[in-house]
Amino acid sequence: MLNEADLRDGAVDTDAVPAEGASDPPLASRRLLLGGSLAALSLAAGSLVRPSPAVAQGAPAAAPAPAKGPQPFDYPGKDKGLTLLGDRPLVAETPEALLDDDTTPIAKFFIRNNGQIPEPIKDVDGWQLKIEGEVDKPLTLTVAELKSRFTPHTFRMVLECGGNGRSFYQPAARGNQWTNGGAGCAEWTGVRLADVLKAAGLKASAKFTGHYGADPHLSGDTTKDAISRGMPIEKALEPHCLIVWAMNGEPLPHIHGGPLRLVVPGWPASLSSKWLNRILVRATPHDGQGMGGTSYRVPTVPIVPGSNADGKTNFADLTSMPVRSIISTPANGTRLPATTREVALRGAAWAGDHEVAKVEVSFDAGQRWHVMTLAKPKNRYDWVRWTGKVTLPSEGYFELWARATDSRGVAQPHVATNWNPQGYGSNPLHRIAVLVG
């Protein structure tokens, strides 16, 4: 059984913890509806602390964890505005207001590790990737050979942690307590995974992949992988799945998996292996670290929140990430002049394997919704930037809610749904507060 100190100090991979009992305490309590950045507004507009939607509906409540605000973050090349969620392994999310760029700058891109950070290498072009298993011609390719032998492609695509939104679950689920900041949209340059797999000659028995990276296990045990996940071959052959060596036109930073990583868009970023050095083509589903049980898996039959599920029955791998929208301007906690009535809004939305069909904003708790204008994405899996405005009826305190709907007609819920022990797939409406006057 994990203890609070283990989770606080990051001594375990908090996104891939076996279900051994009831929910363990999370890294930090981040359950307030609008977060600690509204302290100043709380003084001016009254307390914003209220029962969470899940508690109000009668779901079992978790024992309150000690209050802990955003932790200082200081890492070379990274914006100091990121929020540290854990330092072993290193995990940091990007506040929504920092996700206001069409292409997320490297400095503002979230960090998610599962093990130790490997030592950088000097010979980047000499880094090797092995393709083996259910193939006719196993390959060992250097980065230089990937660049010269295959056609490069650049796509702007969202990468999103499977646990993004975890902090919105009630009762608390295990793992890093992400809000909406475990996502970013960068321009990735590399070769199609499909081209490399086809060059190796896929056998008829090739049905799944397994991915391996060079990051050491947190324990230092060289017989264990920090994480090793895989996917059905149909997803691996999707033309936007890339083996990448560049991010936003620059060599792939070491902290983001350089010199080589996978980018598997639309699905949990745990599949997008960093420091990639091996892909195993398999006849059966991959059984590496981070596969099976409750790891990156969600119930197919809803369970009672707080249940001690082991994932052995009625669970399936999380595949396409759910639809999500964020408000990036104004920032949560913004105070506007008393004469302000029209508020300009900007944000982003994305929907896993699907398309974003609509984004709406409400300033009256969902009584009325105002449709925003969507920009055209650059390519599939790019996020949709949206803009619009709302006209407030008076000065005072207002909550702005953003709701996206995908191409299937599925909209974001008001509260996090389909509770699961490790908190995957949580995508409730994004809410911010502004004070006029």
Task: Provide structural commentary.
The structure is a single chain. It contains six helices and 23 strands. The protein has 437 residues and is mainly beta. Strands 6, 7, 9, 10 and 11 form a five-stranded antiparallel sheet that branches. Strands 16-23-22-18-19 form a five-stranded mixed sheet, with no helix packed on it. A hairpin with a 2-residue loop joins strand 9 and strand 10 (250-251). Mean pLDDT is 88; it is low at 1-14 and 16-66.
- Strand % is 25-35%
Using only C-alpha atoms, the radius of gyration works out to 22 Å
Low-confidence stretches are 1-14, 16-66
Question: How many β strands by DSSP?
Answer: 23
Write the H/E string, N to C: HHHEEEEEHEEHEHEEEEEEEEEEEEEEE
Report, as a whole number of angstroms, the end-to-end distance.
50 Å
Number of helical elements: 6
Oligomeric form of this entry? single chain
Structural class: mainly beta
Q: Tell me, rounded to a whole number, the average pLDDT.
A: 88
Helix content: under 10%
Net shape: globular
Largest sheet: 5 strands, antiparallel
Write the layout of secondary structure elements.
Layout: H1 4-8, H2 39-45, H3 53-56, E1 83-87, E2 90-93, E3 111-112, E4 128-133, E5 139-142, H4 143-149, E6 152-160, E7 183-192, H5 193-200, E8 208-213, H6 233-236, E9 242-247, E10 250-251, E11 261-263, E12 276-282, E13 297-299, E14 315-317, E15 324-329, E16 334-336, E17 342-350, E18 356-362, E19 370-371, E20 373-374, E21 384-391, E22 396-406, E23 430-436
Parallel strand pairs: 4-12, 16-23
Antiparallel strand pairs: 1-2, 2-3, 4-5, 6-7, 7-9, 8-12, 9-10, 9-11, 13-14, 15-17, 17-21, 18-19, 18-22, 20-21, 22-23
